[in-house]
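Entry 14: structure prediction run for Glycosyltransferase. Input pasted below.
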Amino acid sequence: MTEKNLLMLFVRNPELGKVKTRLAASVGPETALDIYLHLLRHTRDITQHLPLDKVVYYSEKVEEDDIWPATLYLKKLQHPDGDLGEKMKAAFEAAFAEGYTSVVIIGSDCPQLTPDIINQAFEALKTNEVVIGPALDGGYYLLGMRKLYHDLFQNKRWSTEHVFPDTIADIERLHLRHTLLPYLSDVDELEDLQANWPELS
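Run finished. Output tokens:
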């Protein structure tokens, strides 16, 4: 069976007052937007040269002329209904329906993410059913799988420290072969920013 890999990037449209709202409470909406644009550019820079199919899923509307070159990234809209889990599940479902054999999703909040770690994820999926990149705040920055496991997206307390442990509990309950990537830090709060980019805080 031919391997067909897809990297999905979930991003928010960079609009004032709608991104990094927890961070904005500390630094103000304008600075929060600047930081989010910085994160988006980082995510583009580490993914654009990866030799695999890539799709950017926008939160509100597809942007034709932005930092994501249409020559390198397909562009789609996140599923309009439901919570983050429903939106991610719909994206995985679409990818497997299109014939992809290994699918990885990342967000745009992780300044420590590198091309090597993304490559590690796809390498891990050659011998595992699931790969997950845990974030220090209790969430995850990457999730990959070889087929859709609905349970991983259901009954989760999104944007809390329970997401990663609850997801791992599902993976173990389903007896799925899995591997963990390195623990990395997301940028959601002022403390995360100070730890990752002190020059921006």
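Notes: The longest strand covers residues 5-11. Will compare against the previous run tomorrow.
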